[in-house]
Design a protein that fits this description.
The chain is mainly alpha-helical. Helix content is 35%, strand content 3%. It is built from four helices and two strands, in the order ββαααα. The site of zinc ion has 7 residues, from loops.
Length: 121
C-alpha cells in the first residue's frame, strides 16, 4: 500500500482499505505472520473485518473488537491472550508509526524481533 496510491479492496466487506493501520495484511506482516514473498499475493482485508485478530488490539485509539464464540479471547488461555495482545497491539502501533514515516523499506516494516528472524533465514 505504501508503494501504491490506490487502496486495495477488502475481501470481506468489499470496501477500500484506505490506511495502512486498517490493513489486516500489513498488520500480519509486521508481526511476522505473512512473509514478504507472499505479501503481494495475499488478499487484503480490514483489521476490523478479521475480528479474531482485531480483538487482541488493546489501544485507546482502537475501538475494541469483540468476538462471539469459540475464538472469543475471553474463552482463551489467559497467558496466550496476554502474549497475543502484547504482540498484536505493538504491531498495530507500528503501523500507525509507519504511516507518518517516509522512505521506510518494506523489509524494515516488521517489528525488530521479526526482522531478526527474517535475517536468520
Ligand atoms: Zn472490510
Amino acid at each position: 500500500m505504501a508503494q501504491c496510491e490506490q487502496g486495495y479492496l477488502c475481501s470481506v466487506c468489499g470496501s477500500d482499505v484506505e490506511n495502512i493501520w486498517d490493513s489486516d495484511l500489513y498488520l500480519r506482516y509486521v508481526i511476522g505472520q505473512v512473509d514478504p514473498e507472499t505479501l503481494h499475493t495475499t488478499r487484503e482485508r480490514h483489521i476490523r473485518c478479521n475480528p479474531t485478530l482485531a480483538q487482541f488490539i488493546v489501544d485507546p485509539e482502537f475501538e475494541l473488537v469483540l468476538v462471539e464464540g469459540p475464538f472469543d479471547k475471553r474463552q482463551l488461555d489467559a497467558f496466550y491472550v496476554r502474549e497475543q495482545e502484547r504482540l498484536i497491539t505493538r504491531g498495530w502501533r507500528r503501523l500507525k508509526d509507519l504511516a507518518h514515516q517516509e522512505g521506510v523499506s518494506l523489509l524494515d516494516y516488521p517489528l525488530p524481533e521479526v526482522r531478526d528472524r527474517m535475517k536468520e533465514r
